[in-house]
């Protein structure tokens, strides 16, 4: 681990993409000087010049050999090259094998599962930490869940975390990620273990500011992150808010598409069609659009009986702005030596609850009672 007097390089992969550009600006605004990494030399050089003459590297984020020539042991690597199931594996592999700390902006459950289960042990063996889904999906849920669990104590064996957004625009990368996710198996933390379950299997209601809102279950990093920090947990589920008809429709769609997901040639054909129909890297909501977005995250800690023992609610602004800010905060904290472990880590395990609470507050996400 680097110490606080020896900050390490921060490498930003996918710097010229929508989330990458926002993250580069957030890093510079916090006083960092990241190395911007992208395939297109002209575009990345122009961005580096605009941000004050930053160092650049030209590499294909899907090419292991390209990345091996750029990444060094002890570096802090941020990957924003979604959709991650299509483009993301090379970066996490190189980070784990080289011994570089790693953050990404994925919201894709199967990808983040591979970070924890496949690459986490490799990184641990090389004294490196991997923090997948270190953005709006799924840092807020880990923080809200931890706050609820702290209130409830060890009597809480179950946790439900739900995300609700208002006025939210979606980037091309997000749309491509969603399309790809519909063709992948889901998972959840059930009866003390990660188990393969269908996304959309649960549709629940949550109290959001006195209103009862509907959400549908999805795979998330909370399933890995929170049981590691709170071993008494037996069940964890994460949810995305949606109108009731859409939530039920998603559940029906994932049920009906089960044969497609489980038959290799059919799945590959469907994936190829989705990739042609939904392109990534097509831009995203403007600053004006993002300024009007609001998010609420609700976590309910439950007893084995199902009784809700404690609730924590977080409020914040635009998901893309939060993702850029929290990635910048996390990478800079790691570069300064503030990580608390190695291997695949959730946000609480990586930084501790108080440090994470402060970092999220600086990125505009606070508990409702403090808003």
Automatic annotation (TrEMBL):
UniProt signal peptide: none
PANTHER family registered for this protein in UniProt: SACCHAROPINE DEHYDROGENASE
Ranges of residues in domain Saccharopine dehydrogenase NADP binding: 10-105
The organism of origin for this protein: Nocardioides humilatus
SUPFAM superfamilies: NAD(P)-binding Rossmann-fold domains
Name this protein carries in UniProt: NAD(P)H-binding protein
Pfam families for this protein: Sacchrp_dh_NADP
Membrane spanning residue stretches: none
């Amino acid at each position: 681990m680097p110490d606080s007097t020896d900050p390490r390089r921060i490498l930003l992969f996918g710097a010229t993409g929508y989330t990458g550009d926002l993250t580069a600006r957030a890093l510079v605004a916090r006083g960092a000087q990241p190395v911007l990494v992208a395939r297109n030399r002209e575009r990345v050089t122009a961005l580096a010049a605009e941000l004050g003459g930053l160092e650049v590297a030209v590499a294909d984020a899907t090419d292991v050999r390209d990345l091996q020539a750029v990444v060094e042991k002890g570096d802090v690597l941020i990957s924003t090259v979604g959709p991650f199931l299509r483009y993301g594996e090379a970066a996490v592999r190189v980070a784990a094998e080289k011994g570089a700390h790693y953050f990404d902006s994925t919201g894709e459950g199967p990808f983040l599962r591979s970070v924890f289960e496949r690459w986490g042990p490799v990184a641990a063996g090389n004294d490196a930490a991997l923090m997948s889904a270190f953005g709006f999906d799924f840092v807020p849920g880990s923080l809200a869940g931890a706050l609820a669990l702290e209130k409830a104590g060890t009597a809480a064996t179950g946790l439900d975390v739900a995300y609700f957004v208002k006025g939210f625009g979606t980037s091309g990368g997000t749309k491509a990620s969603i399309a790809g996710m519909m063709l992948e198996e889901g998972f959840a933390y059930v009866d003390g273990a990660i188990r393969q379950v269908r996304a959309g299997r649960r549709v629940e209601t949550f109290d959001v500011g006195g209103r009862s809102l509907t959400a549908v279950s999805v795979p998330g990093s909370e399933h890995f992150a929170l049981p590691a920090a709170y071993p008494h947990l037996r069940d964890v589920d994460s949810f995305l808010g949606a109108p009731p008809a859409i939530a039920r429709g998603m559940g029906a769609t994932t049920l009906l598409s089960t044969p497609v997901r489980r038959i290799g040639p059919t799945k590959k054909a469907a994936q190829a069609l989705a990739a042609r129909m939904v392109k990534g890297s097509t831009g995203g909501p403007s600053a004006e659009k993002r300024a009007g977005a609001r998010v609420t995250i609700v976590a309910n800690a439950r007893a084995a009986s199902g009784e809700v023992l404690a609730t924590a609610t977080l409020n914040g602004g635009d998901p893309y702005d939060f993702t850029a800010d929290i990635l910048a905060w996390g990478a800079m904290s790691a570069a300064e030596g503030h990580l608390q472990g190695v291997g695949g880590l959730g946000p609480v395990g990586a930084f501790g609850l108080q440090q994470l609470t402060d970092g999220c507050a600086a990125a505009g996400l606070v508990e409702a009672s403090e808003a």
